[in-house]
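DM from R.C. (forwarded with permission)

"hey, sorry to bug you on a friday — could you get me a structure for this? deadline for the figure draft is monday and I only need the backbone to look sensible"
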Amino acid sequence: MNTAAAINAYSNVSLESRVIGADPHQLISLLFEGALLEISNAKNSMLRKEIAAKGKSISKTISIIGEGLNASLDKKVGGKLAQDLSALYDYMVMRLVEANLNDNVDNLDEVARLLVELKGAWDAIRPQVVGTGTTTAQPYTPGNPSRTYASA
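My reply, with the result:
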């Protein structure tokens, strides 16, 4: 096994361990981290003119935002806040598509700034949310569709 493969294997095990032990609030934080990491990868790939790698990282970011963060919103309970976040996530996806099509680093930076702000706010409310028991602190169990996620 070469060094890169070993590092990748370690990273996968490390992430899997973090996900398994995470409560719903931490899972959303991990989604923010994953999106930010993929934006960084996309930016580096864009600067190195690695088109396939850039596209793969931007696609992963779009999936994290659309299928992770946006899908985790409870629009019935979250009301206007959840609707506004959903619109912001849609905007981010649009900016990422434009970044991919036009090799626009500024779009990647804009989405990264928005995600950093949202992640900071999300992490800041953790003591209140965990302290009140608002999240369902169940460890992740693969294949458990009934698991409840906190509103992101």
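R.C.: lifesaver. Helices lie at 3-20, 24-47, 51-70, 75-102, 105-124, 126-132.
me: no worries. DSSP finds six helices and no strands in the chain.
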